[in-house]
Design goal:
The complex is a heterotrimer of chains A (about 250), B (about 210) and C (about 850). Chain A is an alpha/beta fold. Chain A folds into two domains: about 1-30 and about 215-245, no CATH class; about 35-210, Rossmann fold (3-Layer(aba) Sandwich), CATH 3.40.50. Chain A is built from ten helices and six strands. Chain A has a six-stranded parallel β-sheet, sandwiched between helices. In chain A, helix 7 (about 160-170) links the parallel strand 4 (about 150-160) and strand 5. With about 210 residues, chain B is mainly alpha-helical. Chain B folds into three domains: about 1-90; about 95-130; about 135-210. Chain B has six helices and no strands. Chain B has helices at about 5-25, 30-65, 70-90, 95-130, 135-150, 160-200. In chain B, helix 1 packs across helix 2 (about 30-65) and helix 5 (about 135-150) packs across helix 6 (about 160-200). The longest helix of chain B has about 40 residues, at about 160-200. Chain B is extended. Chain B starts with a helix and ends in a 9-residue tail after the last helix. Chain C is mainly α and about 850 residues long. In chain C, the strands form two sheets. Chain C has a six-stranded parallel β-sheet with strand order 5-4-3-6-7-8, sandwiched between helices. In chain C, strands 1-2 form a two-stranded antiparallel ribbon. Chain C is rod-shaped and about 175 Å long. The chains are: A alpha/beta (about 250), B mainly alpha (about 210), C mainly alpha (about 850). Chains A and B meet through helix 1, helix 3, helix 4, strand 3 and helix 5 of A and helix 1, helix 2, helix 4 and helix 6 of B.
């Protein structure tokens, strides 16, 4: 037996992804402004010019499971940050709450340096695991934010309620904080504690807004398309159910 | 990485993803078995990654201690207790009384304290929110939080009053209708984003394993 | 001895016999021509005993002049001989070609007319043989006409002077001189290389030279007269000789009797005064000085105004002028100004004129120029017709209007000076006019010149040849003036004309007459006239001739300029570095912490405040309690502990109420956790509850430990629990120390092969993710086994849809402390929930109050700021 519904939905995703990728090569798609990512670019530039450090947190989620999605989005942002901060006096620091995610972060950082020809500047300790548990991970953040001359604190990954604590640590140190997670509870907490919170699926838009590649921008368009389809399906189902039509 | 090596890793990643997907969308035993095998391998890799992470943790703090960087005493304490706990668990087991003692009287209070700190940080952030971010959404956020709190906990006075009942019902309505609905939409969007992100990895467009 | 000698420059008295002024260094006595035949001027014959020899030599040189000279390029340009007007320009060229041997009389020779009045001759005091100065500005180089003027002046002053011969010669002299003066020939560059007082004078001199034989040795009064006449001719030659000038022109001078040739003026008396001084030796300087002294007070205006200048400095403050430099300026000024007072020229002693003329190399020229620059009197008439009868040929050439006489090419002529369209009329009585570089207004006449000099006065002294032009002149003063006015402009030789600069390069400058110019009274140029005013050019600010261009600045450029200005200012401004580390206590945090602590501690310790227990029971509570009551006691219940230690405070309370009921019914409980810290949490909670109900571990509850792998592991476990977990956690030991069971081999799990073999699956989670994973991953494998969610208050909204769905995946839900309290109340077993109700209520109340205060404070600031902005 084949789950056709799942395959159809999967097909819709793949088709729209490819179609938007081809469409993007011919035309320019404009996305709505996201102040967080705009400020992120400027904050990184200032940090590089001032010789300060940039910190990226990939969250406490693991590589396997649903919490790996935001972490992969964080890796896309990491690739752009690596190229942007390759010439900084103080290289970027990538932290994660999972060992496997830490390995991925190190590999992505090395690739970013290689792309700009600064592979010698890569340090293995640039990618770190602060703690296996969420609160132990957060407990290790003040040591980086307080003594590492960090001025940009980016949190893109799977966080729980501890994200609010991590963002609060950044705010207390007066650094630029951009935080996003897939957890709804954490998002509400980040709205109150972070300077630039990413609500909802905005955490997956980092690659598109930082020009990580055409497929990232096509992914964003695909998400919008599927979202509209889901909305339409919900409304249609509600109407049908209202009028007693069962599916 | 050379071009040839990159293609091999990309092929492996794509094949594994397709197999797992087929194992989910089909009931073919082949794909289901392969899916389970791959998932077990992933589990093992995740556990191995945990070990690698611990090694990285230790190396970073060891370097910090050796270089006398700022905050190196804390790194030293971390290394000491890491070693001690690791030894304790390796020698006595994770469910030994000593390990449980350490967990119950050190780990648990520490994390409970961090949770309490989170509560205070949230209260402080809530108090500053309107002053720092002067917009309607922030005001609505705080008012909603206050409403939920009023509908959740007991009142010092008039806990049995109709107002309390009304607030409680209002809280339930807000939480289960508006909050749940919004959360559901957020979850949908997050799920869509996760799917697309996974598809980029499956299509080898996004290679977290390096290029 | 004699009287003191007054310096012509500074007008200071010097001891007699002094050659140079002790104050300014000016020469007091003019220089005499050397005695060498090739160097000395014939007019400056040193001594009388040599005159006999000199006479012969004089005749020889004169003869040489007559016999011929080399052809000249100017021959064609020079006016033809015999024409009214004078000799052709060839004489100018021949003037140059005449070698030193032919120049003038041999040394020591003095013309007869010059020798007739030795006492009146100017003593060439201080004259040094061989002293050559360009331009002939030596006493021996003074032209004859100059000498005649001086003689005339001396004649007027000294009664010893012979009266001027009347009649024709004087008229001739006047006319000749006037014609010379009136000639429009350029002087500057148009002058022959001889540099004499004029090329205009050259033909005259030349003609004169061809005239009567000069007896240089005869210094008798008449002889001196003649000698003076000759010297007037020879003097022109003499200075040329001294300067090495070409005197070949003298050879062109036709012999006596020829038309156009100047008659011998030697026979006529000339002013012996200045001529005699030319020949006077150093010994006679004293005598001359005496004569000069006698003639003190009188000075020829045009030549001797220096005397006037010296005596009467015209500066405002006489004390300021004391130096010789000032004196020099004064005399020069006076020389120039002397043109305004032509009459004074006659009064001046020729000696002084002679002296002043001997100062510089071109003093005579300066004087001549000055004389030319003077406005001519109105009565100046046009120069006489060309070819005056009485004028020598060379004189007539000079005076011939329209270019008769030596003429230069037109370009050279015009380039030398700005000539009026018509020849400038010269006063009749003035000296031969050589056009100066200064433009003269037509009508302006060298009135001073003409007025200063009266040829009639020296008519008797002029030689015959010199008298011819005067005779042919207008006659009388008026006639002389008219003749002078009728003087034709001298023509320049072709070669000289070619050398004239192009007029385009010369700006037409209208220079005001000197007498009209203001007299400078201060500064280094005090005493001079015609000084350019500095104020209009230098001192006074002038408006720019070109209007300042208005800079057009756009708004963007202005904004950018302002931005740049701000950036530059910011660079200078010291900015305080933001202090990242807080140096002061965060008061808000401390206050909030204190309030929260008090709110929690006070109910525990003091017991106040206390809150009433909830009376309302949620609609979810009874179903859950019924479900638990319906659990089979022979099938274990799987309890999943998926929360972090930080959430243990809440979750232990909520889960405790639930587990208390479950374990109270005697349902076996098996714990599992997908988090590393989960098993330990499970051990704590289950041990505590089991101890309350007397349940033993291993038989009443069992721990399976940690399930690694996240959602995948959940799916694996759901599919095959025994394959996912191999060993239990915290397995109790037997009294002998051995483990009773390994986990799945324990009696509790003896009948469990699949997930559906459990009696219930309860997930205790603090987050929605884990709950959803179990609800989504485990549901397909659970069958009819109920799934219960024990959640934190924050996770309930997202899990409730699973509970309220039509086909719910969650069968029971318990979330939050209030629900736990109610559950305990319903179960009639107050537990930890009841004990935490009051602190919970107090903390919530404090939190509500603080949040409300923050909202009010933020709104107040917001409103106040928005209200303040419009006022500002």
């Amino acid at each position: 037996m084949i789950d056709l519904r799942g395959l159809v939905i999967l097909g819709i995703f793949i088709t729209s992804l490819l179609a938007y990728t081809g469409y993007r090569r011919r035309r320019t798609i404009a996305f709505r402004k996201m102040r967080g990512f705009e400020e992120l670019g400027r904050a990184i530039e200032r940090a590089v010019e001032a010789g300060e450090r940039v910190h990226l947190s990939l969250g406490t989620g693991s590589v396997i499971g649903s919490d790996s999605g935001p972490a992969l989005a964080g890796l896309a942002v990491l690739s752009r940050m690596a190229t942007a901060t390759s010439m900084s006096d103080k290289p970027s620091v990538i932290t994660a709450g999972d060992g496997a995610m830490m390995v991925l972060a190190q590999d992505r950082l090395r690739t970013g340096y290689q792309q700009v020809g600064e592979s010698t500047r890569f340090q293995l300790t640039a990618g770190r695991m602060l703690g296996p548990t969420p609160f132990s991970y957060v407990a290790g953040l003040p040591a980086i934010l307080g003594t590492g001359d960090v001025t940009v604190h980016v949190m893109i990954g799977s966080f729980g309620a501890e994200a609010a604590l991590a963002a609060d640590f950044g705010e207390r140190n007066g650094v630029f904080v951009l935080a996003g997670t897939d957890d709804v509870q954490a998002q509400s907490l980040l709205y109150a504690t972070a300077t630039h919170p990413l609500i909802g699926e905005e955490v997956f838009a980092g690659g598109a807004y930082l020009n990580a590649g055409p497929l990232h921008q096509a992914s964003l368009s695909t998400q919008d398309l599927v979202r509209f389809l889901i909305v339409a399906a919900i409304l249609l189902g509600t109407l049908l159910r209202t009028f007693g039509v069962s599916l | 990485m050379k071009l040839g090596t990159y293609l091999i890793w990309a092929a492996v990643a794509v094949a594994a993803g397709i197999i797992v997907l087929l194992g989910y969308f089909t009931n073919l035993d082949v794909f289901i078995g392969l899916r389970l095998v791959l998932l077990r391998w992933a589990t093992l890799l995740a556990a191995a990654g945990l070990g690698i992470g611990l090694v990285n943790l230790a190396s970073v703090h060891l370097a910090k201690v050796s270089d006398q960087e700022p905050g190196w005493p804390y790194s030293g304490v971390l290394i000491v207790f890491l070693t001690f706990t690791l030894a304790l668990g390796l020698f006595f087991g994770p469910d030994s009384p000593w390990t449980l003692f350490v967990f119950n009287f050190i780990h648990l209070p520490l994390e409970s304290s961090l949770m309490a700190l989170l509560a205070i940080a949230l209260v402080v952030a809530g108090v500053r929110l309107v002053g720092r971010r002067r917009d309607v959404l922030s005001l609505a956020f705080l008012l909603t939080a206050i409403l939920i709190l009023l509908g959740t906990g007991p009142w010092p006075v008039a806990s049995d009053s109709g107002l309390h009942t009304a607030i409680t019902d209002l809280r339930a309505w807000v939480a289960q209708v508006w909050a749940a609905g919004g959360a559901r939409g957020i979850l949908l969007g997050v799920a869509i984003g996760a799917v697309v992100t996974g598809l980029r990895v499956l299509m080898a467009a996004d290679r977290p394993y390096g290029s | 001895m004699g009287e003191e000698i007054r310096c012509p420059m500074c007008s200071k008295l010097n001891p007699p016999g002094t050659e140079s002024c002790a104050f300014c260094g000016a020469r007091l006595k003019p220089l005499l021509a050397p005695a060498a035949p090739d160097e000395s001027s014939p007019g400056l014959s040193p001594s009388a005993p040599d005159r006999s020899e000199e006479e012969a030599a004089g005749e020889d040189w004169l003869a040489r002049m007559r016999t011929g000279a080399a052809q000249d390029d100017l021959e064609e340009d020079l006016p033809k001989k015999g024409e009214g007007g004078g000799a052709s320009p060839d004489w100018l060229g021949r003037l140059r070609e005449v070698g030193p041997a032919d120049e003038g009389p041999p040394a020591g020779e003095v013309p007869d007319w010059l020798g007739e009045q030795p006492e009146q001759a100017v003593a060439p005091a201080g004259a040094e043989p061989g002293d050559e100065e360009p331009g002939g500005a030596v006493p021996a180089q003074i032209p004859d006409w100059l000498s005649r003027v001086r003689e005339r002046q001396a004649q007027e002053v000294e009664p010893a002077w012979e009266p001027e011969p009347e009649g024709e010669p004087s008229e001739v002299d006047e006319g000749w001189l006037a014609r010379i003066r009136d000639s429009g020939e350029p002087v500057g560059e148009g002058l022959p290389s001889s540099g004499g007082p004029a090329g205009a004078a050259a033909p005259e001199v030349e003609g004169e030279a061809q005239g009567p034989t000069l007896d240089w040795g005869d210094l008798t009064p008449s002889g001196e007269r003649e000698a003076a006449e000759a010297a007037s001719v020879d003097s022109g030659l003499s200075w040329r000789e001294d300067s090495g000038a070409d005197t070949g022109w003298l050879e062109e001078v036709p012999p006596d009797g020829e038309p156009g040739t100047p008659k011998t003026a030697r026979k006529q008396g000339v002013q012996e005064g200045w001529l005699s001084e030319l020949e006077a030796t150093a010994d006679e300087s004293e005598g001359l000085a005496d004569r000069r002294a006698a003639d003190k007070g009188a000075a020829a205006k045009w030549l001797g105004n220096a005397e006037i200048v010296v005596e009467k400095p015209f500066t405002a403050n006489e004390d300021e002028i004391g130096g010789p430099e000032a004196a020099e300026a004064e005399w020069l000024k006076e020389l120039e100004r002397g043109t305004d007072e032509p009459s004074s020229r006659q009064d001046q002693e020729p000696a002084r004129v002679w002296e002043t003329a001997g100062e510089g190399s071109l003093d005579w020229l300066a004087e001549y120029d000055a004389s030319i620059g003077r406005p001519q009197p109105e009565e100046v008439e046009e120069p006489g017709p060309a070819g005056d009868e009485g004028a020598p040929g060379w004189l007539s050439e000079i005076n011939a209007p329209g270019g008769q006489g030596p003429s230069l090419p037109e370009e050279a002529r015009t380039a030398q000076f700005e000539e009026p369209s018509e020849p400038i009329p010269e006063p009749p009585e003035e000296l031969p006019h050589v056009p100066a570089l200064v433009f003269k207004q037509p009508g302006q006449a060298a009135s001073a010149q003409g007025q200063d000099f009266d040829l009639d006065s020296i008519e008797g002294e002029l030689p015959d040849w010199l008298g011819e032009p005067k005779a042919g002149g207008t006659g009388g003063e008026a006639g002389g003036g008219q003749a002078g006015a009728d003087l034709a402009p001298a023509t320049l030789p072709a070669w000289l004309e070619a050398m004239r600069p192009i007029s385009t390069f010369r700006s037409v400058v209208d220079v005001a007459e000197e007498q009209e110019a203001t007299l400078e009274s201060a500064g280094p140029l005090a005493g001079l006239r015609g000084v350019l005013m500095a104020e209009p050019v230098v001192a006074m600010p002038r408006a720019p001739t070109i209007g300042a261009a208005k800079l057009e600045v756009t708004e963007r450029q202005y904004a950018q300029a302002e931005l740049l200005h701000q950036i530059v200012e910011e660079e200078e401004r010291e900015l305080s570095t933001p202090d990242k580390r807080r140096l002061r206590l965060p008061m808000l945090r401390w206050v909030v912490s204190a309030v929260m602590l008090l709110a929690v501690i006070l109910p525990i310790t003091v017991g106040t405040p206390s809150f009433s227990l909830p009376t309302q029971v949620s609609r979810d509570l009874l179903p859950l309690m019924g479900l638990v009551n319906d659990l089979p006691v022979d099938r274990p219940s799987l309890i999943i502990f998926d929360f972090d230690p930080g959430y243990s405070g809440e979750m232990d309370t909520v889960a405790g109420a639930f587990l208390d009921q479950v374990m109270g019914r005697g349902v076996p409980v098996v714990s599992l956790s997908t988090r590393p810290s989960g098993p330990a949490l499970a051990v704590n909670l289950l041990n505590r509850i089991a101890a309350r109900h007397g349940v033993s571990p291993g038989t009443g509850y069992l721990h399976l430990g940690y399930l690694s792998g996240g959602p995948a592991a959940v799916q694996i476990f759901s599919a095959s629990p025994r394959d996912a977990v191999h060993k239990g956690f915290d397995i109790p030991e037997a009294p002998d120390g051995e483990e009773t069971c390994g986990g799945w081999d324990c009696p509790i799990l003896s009948g469990v092969q699949r997930l559906s073999d459990f009696g219930m699956v309860a997930v205790i989670s603090s987050g929605t993710e884990n709950a959803r994973v179990w609800a989504e991953q485990a549901h397909p494998f659970m069958g009819q086994v109920p799934l219960v969610m024990v959640l934190s208050a924050g996770a309930e909204p997202l899990i409730r849809p699973y509970y309220e769905a039509l086909q719910p995946q969650v069968n029971g839900i318990l979330s939050g402390l209030p629900a736990a309290v109610a559950y305990e109340q319903a179960n009639l077993s107050p537990g930890e929930a009841h004990s935490r109700w009051n602190p919970f209520g107090a903390a919530l109340a404090a939190t509500e109050a603080m949040l409300a205060a923050g909202v009010i404070y933020g709104l107040a600031r917001w409103l106040l700021r928005t209200g303040r902005l419009p006022r500002e």
